[in-house]
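Limitations

Structures in this collection are predictions, not experimental determinations, and the ligand pose is part of the prediction. Treat each record accordingly. The example that follows, with magnesium ion as the small molecule, is included so readers can see exactly what is and is not provided: the inputs are given verbatim, and the output is the predicted complex.
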Amino acid sequence: MPPIQLLSPRLANQIAAGEVVERPASVVKELVENALDAGADRVDVEIEQGGVKLIRVRDDGSGIEEQDLPLALSRHATSKIVSLDDLEAVASLGFRGEALASISSVSRLTLTSRTAAQEAASRVEVEGRDMDARISPAAHPVGTTVEVRDLFFNTPARRKFLRTEKTEFNHVEECVRRQALSRFDAGFTLRHNQRVVQSLRPAESPLDKERRIGALCGQQFIDNAVLIDAEATGLRLWGWVALPTFSRSQADLQYFFVNGRVIRDRLVAHAVRQAYRDVLYNNRHPAFVLYLEVDPATVDVNVHPTKHEVRFRDGRLVHDFIFRTLHKALADVRPDDHLRGAVAQSFGRENAQGVPGAAGHSDPSAPAWSGQPAGFQATPSQGQGMPQGGGQGYSYSAQPQGRSQFQPQPQQEWHASDQMAFYNSLNAGGGVEAGTPAAPAGGAEAMPTPPMDGDEEPPLGYAIAQLHGIYILAQGRAGMIVVDMHAAHERITYERMKRALAEQDLKSQPLLVPLSMAVSQKEAALTETHGDDLRQLGLQIERIGPETLAVRQVPALLRGADSEQLVRDVLADLIEHGQSDRVEAVTHELLGTMACHGSVRANRQLTIPEMNSLLRDMEATERSGQCNHGRPTWTLVTLSELDKLFLRGR
Ligand SMILES: Nc1ncnc2c1ncn2[C@@H]1O[C@H](COP(=O)(O)OP(=O)(O)OP(=O)(O)O)[C@@H](O)[C@H]1O
Ligand SMILES: [Mg+2]
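Predicted complex:
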C-alpha cells in the first residue's frame, strides 16, 4: 500500500461537495439559505444556462467583515454555532460551515460583500490545490453577492450527470419556490437567461401571503384551500390544506416546513395521509403548504447531508398533533364555508377577508376561505357559453364520473347478520333509516317552506326539484345548488355510524377457536408490552411461545374479517409508529360499505320536505362536502356565473 497522506484542501472539499452539491439547484439552495440567515429582506437569483454557466445570488443582508472573508470560503468555518449546545438548538438554516468551501472547490466562485460598518466592499476568491484566498477591493452596497460560474468544470464525472438546461432550471425554480414559501417576509426575484421568471414582493398581510401562495402553487390551489392555525403543547401548525376534492394524481404539491426548513419526513407524511384517509378518493394525493413551529431543541436537524430530513425528539407527540389538527380542520369544513368563499369571490377576492368564525381560524383578519367550492369552474372556458354535457367545465375529469364507480370495494367475508344487527342498533338511536334520508324530529310535514330572502336562509338553500332521480336542485341566495343525493346521504349515514360507534365501546368478542399465529420475537414481545393498547382496540392476544401468539378475542364487529392479517398489521403499526389505527381503519371501511348500501339509491323519488331535510343534515354533518369515496357531494353555480353564461349585464 502507498503511504498515507493528507488530502489537499481542494480535494477534501471536492469530496465533501459530492454529498451536498449535486446540481445547480443545490448551489442555489445553499446560497439562498445563507442570504436568509444573514437577515436579507431581498434575495435576487440570476441563472444562466440552467445554472451551469452562472448562478448569482445577491442579498441585502448583514454582509461579511473584510477580515472574515477568507474564512467564509474555508471548510469548518461558520458564524452560526460555536458549541454543541448551539448545534442542538440551532435556529439558522446553516451550521456546518461547509457550503461555500464545497461549492468553491467545484466551480469558479467569487463572493463580494460589505457590512454597514464598512466604507467599501471587498471581494474574495480562492485558487489552487490549497484554495488560498485572494482579497481585492470592489464596489457593492451593504449585503452580499455570490457568483458561481462553470459549475463542475473541474469534476467531469459530475458534469456528465447534469440534465438539459430546462430540467436543471426546473430544479432551480422548485428550489426557489420552496425558499419563497418558507419566508414570506423576504422578497425574491428569479431570472433565467436575463428573463424575469418570478418576482415576489415581501408578503406581510394575510391576503399578500395568499397571493404569494397562488403565484407559487397555482391559484386553483389557494382557491380550494382552507387556512389552518393550531397550537398545543409548544407546537404550532399553520398553513393551507386543500380540500379533499382538490386532490392530485401525484404527491407534487406537498410542502412541509419545520422551523422554516423544508423537509421530507415519513412520520409527517403518515400523519397527513391518515388525516385525509376518510375523505380522499383512492390513490389521490392531498395538497398542502404547512408550517410546523417547534422548540429548536426538540428537533435534530443534523441527520442528513442536505438537511432534507429532521428527527423529532418526541415523534409521537408531533404525529398526533399534526393528525388531530388536520383531521379536525377537514371535518369542520361545512357548506357555508364554501359558500361564503364563493359569494365573496363573485364580488372580488378582497371581500373574502374578515369572514369571522371560520374553521380552525385564529387570525380574524385573514381570509378563512377564498374561492369557490371545489369542483366548480366558473366559466366554461372553451364553449362560448354553450352548455356542455358530461361534466365538462368541472375540474373532476380525473376522477371517474360514471355512477357504476360508486360500488363499494369488495370486502372480506363479513357476517351479514352482525352487520345488520349493528346497523339496526345504530339506527334505533341515530334516527336514520336505511333507504330514507333522516327526517327532522317533527316529521317531514313539519318542515315549513321558509321565505327565500330572510337572514336565516340556510347555506344550501331550499330544494326545488329532483333531477333524474339522482340530483337535488336547490335554490339559495348565492345561486343554484346541485346535490348528488346518494353521495350526500352516504356521508351523513357514515358519520352518524362512526359517532355511534365511538360512543359505544369497541366490544370484544371471543373467538370460538383461538387463532394461533407464528410471529417474530420482536412482535411477540410487543404483545406483552402493549397488552393494554391492544385490549383497547378490542384485541386479546396471548404469547404462548417465543414466536407464537394466540389471538383470543377480536372486536365484535370485525369477527368476520381476516383476523390474522388484522393482528399482523396492528403489530407492524406498533413497531413503526408506536400506535395503531388499523382497527379503526378497518371498522370505518366496513361502516363505509354499510353506509353506502344503506343510503338513498339513485332513482328513488324524494318529496320536497325529504330533500330539504337532507340539505339540513348536510349542513350539520362533518366532512359532508365529500362522499365516503372522496367525490364531491354538491356544487354551486352562483348567480353571477349564471349571468355570465347568458351574457347578461354586459
Ligand atoms: N450571504 C451571506 N451573508 C452574510 N454572511 C454570509 C453569507 N454567506 C455566507 N456567509 C458567512 O459565511 C459563513 C460560511 O457559509 P457557509 O454556507 O459555507 O456555511 P454555513 O452557512 O455556516 O453552514 P452550512 O455549511 O450548513 O451552510 C457563514 O457562517 C456566514 O457567516
Ligand atoms: Mg450556509
